[in-house]
Amino acid sequence: MKKAIALVMALVMCLSVGMMAFAEAESYDQDDAVVASGTTVLDAAGSADTNVDILVNSTNISVTVPLRYAVVADVKGGACLVPEDGTYYIQNNSAIAVDVTAADVVNGATNNKWDLVEAAVAGIPDGNNQIDMTLSPAAGTAWNLKKDYPADWSLDAATSAGASQLLIDIAANSSMLNTTDDQLDAFVITYTFAAAE
After folding, report:
1. Considering the entire predicted model, what is its pTM?
2. Residue 177 has what DSSP assignment?
3. DSSP string, 34-99
4. Cα gap 187→107, rounded to integer Å
């Protein structure tokens, strides 16, 4: 009997030296903040771990895009007046680099008189009320708005010195016009941004 009691006592002592840990699952709110964290309970001297999760909040991406720009076409056709080089740009205010992952052009709600066309061989579209327009970034491939976006525009991260800007030069040529009416919101360019990979 004494041997049995000694054996039970030895077993209890061995178990008391070991680490007892109980973990609960974590849960997060809609902003990925921890609202209920798991815990580790030690019943004796020992060590316990805390896992650190890093969740990126995509709302930390902040980009400024100009609301509009104007192109002035001559009734006779030819090169249009466009904003001066360096005045049209996309600005990254984020602490991380950002890619322009997609860009698309559609007719604006009021445009029923102008057509976007590819650049003509002679430089001037030959229809009526046609315009070819090309955006040329300081870094990346030029984009004729009638073609697919080249998908290689990116912006460096903002620094303590300020935001990062991607300067974009504009060139446009129009055909002869059969109207003298201004066309507000003729086309809409939609850019899509994501954190650079």
Report:
1. 0.69
2. -
3. EEE------SSS------------GGG--EE--S----B--TT-EEPB-PPTTSSEEEE-SSS-EE
4. 4
